# Entry
Amino acid sequence: MSSSKKVKASKGEREMSKIATEEWSFYKDKFAGEIDPLIQKTMDSQRGLSGEVRRATEAVSDAFEGQRAKAVFSGLQAGVNPNSGKFKTAISKFDTAKASQMGNSVATTQQAHEAEYVTGVQDVIASGRGIASGAQQGVAMAGTMQNQAKIADLQARQAASQAWGSAAGTAAGMGIGAYGQKHGWFDPSDKAGDV
Amino acid sequence: MSMGGSVKQDTTASDTQAKISREQWNLWKEKFAPQVDSLISYINDPDMVQNNVDAAKSAVTDSYEAAKGSTSRAIERYGVNVSPEETAAMEKERAISKSLDVTRTANDTRIAADARRDAVQNGLFALGQGVAGSAQSGWGQVARMQSTRNSANSASAASAAASNASLAGAGLGLAAAIMI
# Structure
């Protein structure tokens, strides 16, 4: 009697399963924990607008104040009368230019900030696409393999069933032959192929 | 009586793969899907562009208010005497400049916010197409599996019928032989 044989997992297959398990654990331990901080960072950046605006405002203000101090100092040194129309106009124009730059700078900062937030969310979503497609591919592969396994099982059972049928047929044939011989159905001198 | 032929299938690897796939999908739904929601809310917010424009206008207006104070302080600091006419001229010049800046900044901001919304929308469409394509591909895989399964089942049914017919034939032959 022949006994059922099994193909055991190779060393390579076992190693691969171990490494795959370790990789998934590694991902869960190290990377999955970083998803929340990444999302949080994006959310925090939305709230950090006031700080960015303040820095932008201060930078423009410092630049203008520095230039004004220099201009006033050099003008006074050169003997410009502070009550002259030229001096007054210069001060006023200076502050208007400063206001223009400052307003523009703040508005630009606001837009950059909003764009940064949107880009941040898009980056988070993009980083998740790999996980989603990995899930899709993984489950498709698992499903295909299990399907193939079930089909192989069905075919094996079918083959066994056919073999039993064939064996039964052979036994029946042998029985008929023996019965026929016993009752003189066949002439022992007949040769196969003779017509 | 067992006819044999059936072997207990080892599906631990594919079971694990299916489990990990489920975990990954759950992770995506829990962490990343809400981000998609937030972008959708962002582009669908009817006040988004106007809020941006209002914020830009406020920024320019605030800057001009600050400049007004700054000029007053400078005038005081340097002991400058400014006549009401000179003050009015300064105010007028500042008002014209402010008006121009508010208009320009509001326009620029509106254009930038619109462009940003369009870009996000396009990005979401591309993402949505990817998700839809993935769903399509997933169902394609399932349909192929189902088809393969059905083919195997049909082949099995045909084979069983043939086997049964063969057995019946053998039985009939035996019965005929006995009767003769």
User: Anything to note?
Assistant: The helical segments of chain B are 12-44, 48-77, 84-179. Chain B touches chain A through 94 residues (CB under 8 Å). Chain B has a mean pLDDT of 87.
